[in-house]
Amino acid sequence: MFRRFTFSFLVALLFVAVASVAMAAEGAPAAGGDSNMKAVIALAAGFGIAIAAFGGAMGQGKAIAAGLEGIARNPSAQNKIFIPMIVGLALIESLVIYALVIAFVLVGKL
Questions:
Q1: Residues 79, 71: Cα–Cα separation, whole Å
Q2: Given CA atoms 96, 65, 63, 47 in this order, what sign does their dihedral have?
Q3: What are phi and psi of 106, to 5 degrees?
Q4: Of 32, 45, 50, 68, which has fewest CB within 10 angstroms of its CB?
Q5: Cα 1 to Cα 7: distance, rounded to the nearest angstrom
Q6: Dihedral, 96, 61, 55, 13 alpha carbons, nearest 10
Q7: What is the pLDDT of residues 74-99, one digit of tens each?
Q8: pLDDT 10s digits, 27-52
Q9: What is the H or E stretch that residue 71 is in?
Q10: C-alpha distances in Å from residue 50, one per residue of 86, 87, 100
Q11: Rounded to two decimals, what is the model's pTM?
């Protein structure tokens, strides 16, 4: 299952990379060339935030699961597990927010 998902993700990423290279132009853009660049920027912003949100959600899910499992196994260690877990979640979320800011910057170039 995971191997098939990874293969599908890499194939989709390859198509996006090939499409962006195919739409790249040197010099003055031809008629309608500017709209191609806008489409690539919009696609990059959309994929960027989607990948960041997916990765952040996966990381936060694993962090919460590990933290709760640790607390369930040793309830007296709750104070030593909970605070670092919250700090880790904040750092993961900050990376997702950074990707959102980058997507806004890209969309601002439209």
A1: 9
A2: negative
A3: -65, -45
A4: 32
A5: 10
A6: -150
A7: 999 999 999 999 999 999 999 999 99
A8: 555 555 577 888 888 888 888 888 99
A9: helix 33-73
A10: 23, 23, 9
A11: 0.62
